[in-house]
Amino acid sequence: MPAPTPPPRYAPVIPLPPYSYVPGHDHPHPVTDPRGHLFNAPKPAPLPLDQLPSDPTSRRQAIAALFAPHPDWLHALDLFNEGYAWEAHEAWEQFWHALGRTTPEARFVQGLIHLAAAAVKIREGKPAGVTKHTQRARELLGVEEAASVGESGGAGVDTLGMDPSSLIAVLAELQRYRPECWHTSRCSVVKIRPATPRRDGWRRSGPSARGRRA
């Protein structure tokens, strides 16, 4: 069987970590262990979120436009796409905190965090944790409910620039995962792809199913 096509990199200038951390495995904790690849890492620059529109739709569109070229956001997608689930979880957390943790946009990012947490639980061999985090991600992302009533997610606005159908595919993949696919680079699991640019010039990007390295 031919090897899957490597996922695209969205922030290729930012190097990937030397290892994908899995709690309880051999690698040092990235943050608390002096040998960790995030030990004493500089804090990310604050996001310019203090002058966002008050209208909910305009606010989400502005956030999506801000995130689309942001190197830390793109690197988080790269991390998830390349199999660095724990690291993607950490990277998305900065956006969750910056967005206020309880705002609608923050809750959506929290859904992405739970996608990464589900992937970590696969690597840990904890199927109950996979189910728990996948279900929570499904609730927070809300993309399946929107699709069931024919909503498009505002051409990516409600999903902060990510393709809703691709998020549904990731959820489905986590629901029916095969553990061996997440422990080797021989099987496709999930992949991030950019969505189609809109005519007004606002570019969307988002994850889509198949093609991930664990």
Question: Keyphrases for this structure?
Answer:
214 residues; two-stranded antiparallel sheet; disordered C terminus; mainly alpha; 5% strand; Hyaluronidase domain-like
Compact summary:
The chain has 214 residues and is mainly α.
How is the topology of this model organized?
Elements: H1 56-67, H2 71-81, H3 85-98, H4 104-124, H5 127-141, H6 143-148, H7 164-175, E1 190-194, E2 205-209
Antiparallel strand pairs: 1-2
Global shape: globular
Strand content bin? under 5%
Overall number of domains: 1
> Structural class, from helix and strand content?
mainly alpha
Low-confidence stretches are 149-155, 184-188, 196-214
Would you mind describing this structure in some detail?
There is one protein chain. With 214 residues, this protein is mainly alpha-helical. The protein has a single domain, classed as TTHA0068-like (Hyaluronidase domain-like, Orthogonal Bundle), CATH 1.10.3450.10. Helix content is 43%, strand content 5%. It is built from 7 helices and 2 strands; from the N terminus they run H-H-H-H-H-H-H-E-E. It has helices at residues 56-67, 71-81, 85-98, 104-124, 127-141, 143-148, 164-175; strands spanning 190-194, 205-209. The chain has a two-stranded antiparallel ribbon with strand order 1-2. Helix 2 runs antiparallel to helix 3 (85-98), helix 3 (85-98) packs antiparallel against helix 4 and helix 5 packs antiparallel against helix 7. It is globular.
